[in-house]
Amino acid sequence: MSANIAEMEKRRSAAKLGGGQKRIDAQHAKGKLTARERLDVLLDEGSFEEMDLYVEHDCVDFGMQDQKFPGDGVVTGSGTINGRLVYVFSQDFTVFGGSLSARHAQKICKVMDAALKVGAPVIGLNDSGGARIQEGVASLGGYADVFQRNVLASGVVPQLSLIMGPCAGGAVYSPAMTDFIFMVKDSSYMFVTGPEVVKTVTNEVVTQEELGGAITHSSKTSVSDLALENDIEALLAARDFFDFLPSSNRDDVPERPSADAWDRLEPSLDTIIPPSANQPYDMHEVIRKTVDEGEFFELQPQHGGNIIIGFGRIEGRTIGVVANQPMVLAGVLDINSSRKAARFVRFCDAFNIPIVTFVDVPGFLPGTDQEHNGIIKHGAKLLFAYAEATVPKITVITRKAYGGAYDVMSSKHLRGDLNYAWPTAEIAVMGAKGAVEIIFRGQDADGIAAKTKEYEDRFANPFVAASRGYIDEVIYPHSTRRRIALGLRKLRNKELENPWKKHDNIPL
Ligand code: HXC
Predict the structure, then answer these.
(1) Does residue 287 share a domain with residue 144?
(2) Domains identified in the chain, total number
(3) Which is catalytic among the residues 77, 129, 170, 379?
(4) Ligand 1: distance of its center to the CA of 40 in Å?
């Protein structure tokens, strides 16, 4: 008994040291925390319960039988974040570069299975050189086992990936199939093949940072939803973010007390729309003045800035916000913004999060670049996502709602539950000048001006749409929060089901 206790303590101490003090020092020297230190920041103090600490790899090739580390490069288990259960795995770069062996994969699969069984989110802290090269196909199999679980868990429990080191090969595909990815600036990278391979195959010379750093992936590719300054900031952001998420698709959104009155009026919104239709204003202000305590967790702020997505709360309950941003490209819908918002709408729908949409959109972006890169298919993603969503949908048109973009942005026709318009709303096929230049082509400047005025008088308002019932009510901007709060109360027991199908066929 006492011998076993001594052995247990010995193994526990060994596990805590990962790949050894020298490698821990190297990790710290790069500004990175160790796998265990990260879990200490992520989880409530003392809440972590580890599993599989004694697991070791079974590889005997390349002298691996003499190199064993308890835990085999990944710390797994469960804990809580502000009291709510979460399953976690944290890869240990000090053990074979956090690379994934068959046993390492088995540990990750075990926590994923446990999370699915009880309906709890999974957070993965990724810091891995990919498949454990010494293990060959065994590690590839391990990856596939993880991928399979990522897919089965998708839409059942939220999955969040934090990328906290160089992640290559298989180490990027598992995060890519999770719901959200946060990266750490200057120390995390994601690529299928690293700079060396790129150079060999394509002759391109590129740094890790340029190829797959946090800035690249949160601005250019949108692989990452957020780029944080360092490990601590990323882990604290993950804690805040977690508080918005339901535990599973069977759970309601989390609710927390709010000191912000549900019927707070916001008079400053009555003057936020500039006098000229071409002048921008910041839609963030509208969002922040609407949600509880002005707290808005924005995702992908550096990518597709013409649409804003993120989570807020009304009466303490999570809402997903989608909003056109007039400050960027006049809020137009293009490929990036359509893809960005579509995936977010689908996440909200999968996890019973009501969607509040603020609309100020001049239409789809014209041009060969957009057309040749498939705006038809990408724009259709957002249309499809809104149309299939059955969660409560509340829409507020603040200014422009032109053309197809009017239809797309959670319109009444796509089963919007409550569609409001501010008095400044303009709901039409297109802007007055463009419309007149098409239907009255050939007229002189005076004629065009007169017809433009006539078109504006007729359509630059919310009343034509309201007279058809496409808008439920024209509301004062200052009452927006109150209206949304009332609407969400009403819709809390909403029931709506799509026809039975195996799954849909969203234009991917
Ligand atoms: C085994 C690995 C490893 C791996 C790193 N190490 N990657 N061991 N398998 N895949 C070990 C190193 O030998 C080293 O061990 C320690 O981890 C740290 O690695 P360094 O290279 O010293 O660190 P760094 O300079 O920071 O570079 C990190 C790195 C680089 C960019 C991740 O190590 C790298 O390029 N690794 C290989 C990446 C790769 O090609 N992976 C396979 C992808 S294929 P010591 O003992 O010195 O501490 C794949 C297939 C799945 O994943 C596909 C599914 C779709």
Answers:
(1) no
(2) 2
(3) 170
(4) 25
Assigned domain for 200 exists: yes
Amino acid at the residue 63? G
Which among 365, 386, 362, 385 is positioned nearest to 376, based on CA atoms? Answer: 365
Q: Exactly one of 405, 428, 435, 460 is catalytic; which is it? A: 405
131 Cβ below 6 A of ligand 1 = yes
Ligand 1 atom 4: residue of nearest CA: 132
> Residue 229 contacts by C-beta under 8 Å, 6 or more apart in sequence?
184, 185
Note whether 201 and 327 are same-domain residues: no
Is 73 touching ligand 1 by the criterion CB < 6 Å? no
CATH of the domain at 479: 3.90.226.10
In the set 380, 404, 434, 450, the catalytic residue is 404
The C-alpha atoms of residue 71 and residue 153 are separated, in whole angstroms, by 24
User: Does one domain contain both 197 and 127?
Assistant: yes
Which residues neighbour 489 within 8 Å (Cβ) at sequence distance 6 or greater? 315
Beta bridge partners of 159: 122
Establish whether 487 is a catalytic residue: no
Q: What is the pLDDT along the chain (508 residues), one digit of tens a residue?
A: 688 899 888 888 888 898 999 999 999 999 999 999 999 999 999 999 999 999 988 878 788 888 888 899 999 999 999 999 999 999 999 999 999 999 999 999 999 999 999 999 999 999 999 999 888 899 999 999 999 999 999 999 999 999 999 998 889 999 999 999 999 999 999 999 889 989 999 999 999 999 999 999 999 999 999 999 999 999 999 999 999 999 999 999 999 999 999 999 999 999 999 998 889 999 999 999 999 999 999 999 999 999 999 999 999 999 999 999 999 999 999 999 999 999 999 999 999 999 999 999 999 999 999 999 999 999 999 999 999 999 999 999 999 999 999 999 999 999 999 999 999 999 988 878 778 888 888 888 888 888 888 888 888 899 999 999 999 999 999 999 999 999 999 999 999 999 999 999 999 9
Q: Is residue 82 in a domain?
A: yes
